[in-house]
């Protein structure tokens, strides 16, 4: 496994991993706070998608997407190092 288990987290969350990958991801998550945080973010997105799909199933797709975006938590993005410097 590489430095982080990012490539395996979706499969882990969906219950699609089997030995030996399952054990490797579990062991990695036990020691890697960054991957645990990423997994929690994925769980949050998954929950939002489930809620949006169940409550907005009969809406046109553009309205569904707008509602989904509205439900996402705000995210702060770092300013690129070159912005604001001339």
Give a topology summary.
Blueprint: H1 6-13, H2 21-31, H3 33-55, H4 61-71
Helix pairs in contact: 1-3, 3-4
Strand content: under 5%
SS class: mainly alpha
Question: Whole-Å distance between the termini?
Answer: 42 Å
Mean of pLDDT: 79
Total strands: 0
Would you kindly provide a written description of the structure presented here, covering whatever features stand out?
With 86 residues, the protein is mainly alpha-helical. It has one domain. Helices cover 62% and strands 0% of the residues. The chain has 4 helices and no strands. Helix 1 (6-13) packs across helix 3 and helix 3 (33-55) packs across helix 4 (61-71). It is elongated and about 40 Å long. The termini are far apart. The mean pLDDT is 79.
Briefly characterize the structure.
The protein is an all-alpha fold. The chain is 62% helix and 0% strand.
Task: Name some characteristics of this structure.
86 residues; mainly alpha; 4 helices
